[in-house]
Amino acid sequence: MTHLKSMKMKLIIMLCCLSILSGCGIASKETFQYLHRYIQAIEQNISTAVNSTLYFMLLPDESQIIVTYDVSDNKLEYPHQLTTNEYWASYSREIEKHQQLWLNITSILPEDTVHNIHRLTLYSDGYANELAAVEPLSWNNEKWKLYVDVSDLNDPIQWVDTLVHEHGHILTLGQHQMDGDNYSTYFCDTFVTDYGCSEEDAYIYQFYKQFWEEEMIEEWEARGLAEDDDGVGWFYMDYEDQFVSEYAATSIYEDIAEAWSYYVLYTFPEGDEIWEKKVQFFESYPELRELKSIILENVTREYEDIQFPI
């Protein structure tokens, strides 16, 4: 929502400038009218776009944050936003442990993805709640922030699965997948997300056309699942053959990210059920097959005692 408001303000400023220039005969009336219609379209679509087809990924509460690092040249900078929680105060200053965790992350993720992470926040919401999260830091989705719940790092398979899942979000919502200047269903001919209008060849748009368009998205919207997490379990039970996991039924964002982590880390499914087709979806992209190989090689090197794919 912050991106939408920011873009609207930029357009209003442009509109004011064009109004002056138009009066002076410098800018055309048509250009002025076009921008005015664009702002109206954004105003009309902010609520419908966000509350219908979209779902904001959950982020930690400020009170749950332990420490935050800016990332420069793939290295953690001086820590800030340290917690005042007595239980985590000591851990918040254990910089060596944080460096080791960051080294683990950078050893697993592809180099291009690591370059996109410009901030790391360590937090805790207790054991086995939200395990991690990501959010864009720039309007064009080039720079991202990674959140890691340090209470959920004891199970290496769960941790790697979570990290690859978050990588899936950056992969499918990143800079070259979205038009970060366009959030309007009026001007977007593909699929509007919280992160912009998806490009024609965007993975998530192709995924949407194959698995979510029309009946599935209409059912998801009708149940109000953008605001009702409690209803996800029932939705999953009704369509269990279509999702890799219950969490995948939360939204199209989580669906494609869960399918991605399954594709990378688990035995490739050969069946015809829809959840299997979602995993098979990535196999048609040579660049994604290469990414899978890179991540598997990295994970195998990092965890020699675990056999991947699982």
Overall description:
This protein has helices spanning 2-23, 29-51, 86-89, 95-108, 111-116, 156-173, 203-211, 215-222, 232-238, 252-265, 274-280, 286-302; strands at 65-72, 75-76, 117-123, 132-136, 144-149, 178-179, 192-193, 196-198. It is an alpha+beta fold and 310 residues long. It folds into three domains: 2-51; 62-168, no CATH class; 178-302, no CATH class. It has a five-stranded mixed beta sheet. Strands 6-8-7 form a three-stranded antiparallel beta sheet, with no helix packed on it. Helix 1 packs antiparallel against helix 2, helix 6 packs across helix 10 (252-265) and helix 10 (252-265) crosses helix 11 (274-280). It is globular and about 50 Å long. The two termini are 38 Å apart. Mean pLDDT is 86; it is low at 1-8 and 31-53.
Quickly give the structural class: alpha+beta
Largest sheet, in brief, is:
5 strands, mixed
Strand content: 5-15%
What is the string of SSEs from the N terminus onward? HHEEHHHEEEHEEEHHHHHH
Physical arrangement of strands within the biggest beta sheet = 2-1-3-5-4
Span between N and C termini?
A: 38 Å
Based on DSSP secondary structure assignment, what is the total number of beta strands?
Answer: 8
**Structure annotation, total helices:** 12
Question: Overall mean pLDDT score?
Answer: 86
Question: In percent, how helical is the residue content?
Answer: 40-55%
Radius of gyration equals 21 Å
What overall geometry do the principal axes of the alpha carbons give?
globular
- Uncertain runs are 1-8, 31-53
Q: What is the total domain count?
A: 3
